[in-house]
Each structure stands twice: as C-alpha cells, then as structure tokens.
User: Fold this.
Amino acid sequence: MGRISDNRRKKKKTTVANIRRDDSSDCSFKEKTGFYEEETEQVGSHIPLSEAGLLNQRGEDLAAAGQYEEAVEHFQRAAGCSPDWVVPVNNIGVACWQIGDSNKAMEWIKKAFVLNPDHRETVLNFIEMLTQMESEDLAFAVAQSYLKRHPDAPEIKARSGILRPSIRIIHHMARSGGTIMCKCLGCMNDVLLLSEVHPLGMQWFDPLTQAAEWYHLFFGDELDELKALNLSFLQKIVRIYARAVELNRHLVLRDWSHLDFTAVPFVQSPSYSLTTATVLESQFNIVRLTTVRHPIDQWLSLSRLAVMNGRISIDAFLRGYCRFAECAKEIGFIRYEDFTRDPEWAMHSVCSLLDLKYDDSFLSKWSTYRSITGDTRSQRGPDDQIKSMPRRPVDQALLKQFEVSKDYWTALGLLGYEHP
Assistant:
C-alpha cells in the first residue's frame, strides 16, 4: 500500500529534501504522497476487517492530507492491533521518510521487510531508501533476493537492472609482486579478497572454498549443496558477492591473469584477454586496476620456479607481457617498484582506483595476513619488510635476448620502464 514517491526511483543520489511533496489540494492520495493502494492481495498484506484496518485507513487519510505525524500515530496503533500485518509497518516507514526522518524510516522498513520479505511494496521501498542512502550494493542484494522467489516481478527487475553492482578486480602477471600488494589490500578493514580466481582455474583455486575457509561466508551443508550444483564461475561470484554485501564487506578479486597471458603449465595457450572481467561484466560493472613489474625482474623470478622450468621461452613470455602491458596502459597500473619505494602512497592509489576506503593499519597487519595464494617465503630479505631489492645478476647472453625483442621495447615504453 504505502509507497515512496515515484520520482525518487532513479539511480541518481538525492536527499530526503528532494522527495516530491505536492501540496495541491486537488491531487490524488498517490500523486501527493507516493502512497498507493494495492490492487491485488498479497500474503500477509490483506486488510483485516478489524480495528487495525480502520486505524490504518485513518492513517492513510491523514497522510493524504499531509498530516504525516498524525498518520504515523494511527499506523502504529494499527500495527499494535495486528502485529503480523505488514502494511501499517511499511506505512510508518514511508510516512517517516516523507517527514524527513530517514533513520526512523529505515528502522520501520527493515521491520516490515523482516515481517514479510515477499511484500512487494515494502521491498520496493526498502530498495529505494537504501539507494537514496547510497547503499546501492545492499539495495541490489535485496532486489536479487526477492527475484529468486518472484522472478516475474517487473518493477523489481527494473530496479535490479539500474542497481547493477560494481565488482573490483586486480590484474597482474605471475611473479610481479602481486601477492604482497594483495596482502596489504586484503588485510584492510571491510575488504574481502579472493586470490588468483579465474573461470579456467577453479580446479586449482575455487572461489567458494576460499570464501568459506577464509571468511566463513558458507558453512557445512550449505557449502556442500553449493558445490553439488556445479555452479559456473559467474554464479559462484554472484553468490559470494551477495554474502559479502550482507556483511558490509567489499569483495575484491585478485585475478589469475597468468592463465590469460602466460598460460603454461595450467592451460594450453594464452587468450591475451582479461577473461575474468569479460565473464563478470554481464552481471557487474567492473572497477579494476593492474599492477606490473619490470619484465627482466619478472622473468628472473618466474624462471626460477620449478613449475615453470623449461615450460616457456623468453619470446613467448615477452609476447604475453607486452599484451598485458597494453591492457595495463588502457586500464591504469601501479608499478611494483613504486610500491616498494613508498607502500603508503601505492596503497592509497590502489584504494583510490578501486573506490575503497584507505586503511593505514595494513602497515602493521600485512606480514601476518594469510588469506592469500602464492605466498612463498622470500630468500632475499625479511618477510615482514617492504623494501626495494637490487636486481639479480643478468648475464649478457640473457640480456641480449631481451634487447632483440620488439615486444620488450614496446612494453617498456607503455609502462615507463628503462632498459638497464
């Protein structure tokens, strides 16, 4: 029954003062207040033929006359007479919103939603209030929850489409310093980071398993049931995202970009495209950045890994590196070398690019953060310090292989690196 004014159901951010309040005496109840009469009965929303119904009707009449405070009193008495009836509870929230008391309005709309999460008008009002209060992620989660039970609800579908959420992704190649940078980000307050996830890599790093074991988003039978569904990568991320929103956490995906630009030994050949972002963009707005490292230093580190020994040539590595550098140039990037010189500046930049709140407590927490993949012990310095390290020795024959590569020089130019 009760409904926030239609002109508020837009993506733009407004305040309570922007709600339409038409004081003309000849306009209808719906036109004046945004309340409107339900045309069909819904479970838990029918008007009882009782004192509660009469009180609620009197509240409607008062609200139609712009007497919202008096209307609230009648709605509260109606709710007291019929505690299981959602309509007066919803109407209290709408009337408080029209008065300008957004906190009390939200309190009552939440009560209505808990009382009956299938009451369409309550759901629409809850979504609208959350949107107006700049909690679009939670508004989207509420819409999606309703649509799971009522997939043919056109207004909720429309709101869900407008509220399409943003997901944050960090792209980097293997051995480019991504692990330590993501440890610094992952330990920040309100961040929930999944590590080296990728549509082609779920047999090695399963997003659901990380979400359950690291952050306890799913438990026991629920996790087993989800795994039994053989969900796609997108379906898993959607579920994890919704659960993160419920906890007021910001989901960040550390993309396993190695599969796209180096591939071996995990997949047969590189796609030279950012597969994770491509898969997710059907459901999410993508907010992302890349991190990079000088190609010589990255190669020297990568080639020392037993799993990569003899698996890839320098030419193949540089081909993938150059294609990744092209993506980095387009998206925006932070160099690992700049991070080691000034971690605070670098993490400020990471948070700014990902639209996250900067948390300087990472400086004391990152070294003990363990919810990460690829965290190997350093053989060149302490594990609890971030500092620049001198380049490993490079023999002239190896250096020559870099110098004759067109991809190498192109990548240096794209990323602002110099040849030693």
